[in-house]
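Catalogue entry: protein
Contents: sequence, fold tokens
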Amino acid sequence: MNTDTLAHLGLSLEPFSKEIDDGDLWLPPSKQAVLDELCDAVHARKSLVLTGEPGAGKTCLLRALRAALGPDTFRLTYCHNVTLGRRDFYRQLCIALGIPRGMTAGDVFFSVSTHVEQLAHERLFPVFLVDEAHLLHQDTLDHLHILLNYAWDSRALLSLILVGLPDLDDRLRLRRNRSLYSRLHHRLSIGALTADDTADYVRVRVARAGGPKDLFSPDALAMLHEAAAGSLRDTDRLATAALRLAARRKRKTVERELLARILQNEGIAS
């Protein structure tokens, strides 16, 4: 949004931008409960799988987890490019960790596992966050459980958090993945936003951008929730489009008919 649009709507910054500090992320009570479980699992040195539909807020939860875990104890490493074979997956992990990477799969795996052991000596606990994990190559899935084995599988030196679509849980339940699945002590899932969640989310984001609490009418919020089907990503996109249209039409409030125009332009039934 340009400055004129923001000024017309009484906003000091774009309310639905991705550029928001981790500590300012808003979570509804249902997702706050999942965050608490994530934190408890990591503090207990456990590994887990987190699944949810697109736009449900999985990456948002990971950012909230990063804000919640103290950097003096935990070292979080985020991996999102998972469409790689085993060697290149571990090479990417080496790059993210800032450690030397070898040429063979054995070399890079040795570098990662040695680094994990060194962190343990420094009383630091690594957490590997693997996003879009439903896209992992099978040869990587076949090997990940070995990454969790230290001192003859008697010590937990890292937490592995696999995050992806519900398909991920189906893949992990396959017999060939049972060694990895048995080491994922927590199996969490998050659902879509409720209508109240959507209304609260929009109002919080607008308020943090300096806007008025009634920038979206109740009817428009209800229509927005239905159109976005509880997806945070679609909520952000449709709400931003509605604000731009409101500014073009010199409106100060997003009403139902204005949001209906946005949905009509996108071919979404209202």
Observations:
- The chain has two domains: 27-190, 193-265.
- The domain at 27-190 is CATH 3.40.50.300 (Rossmann fold).
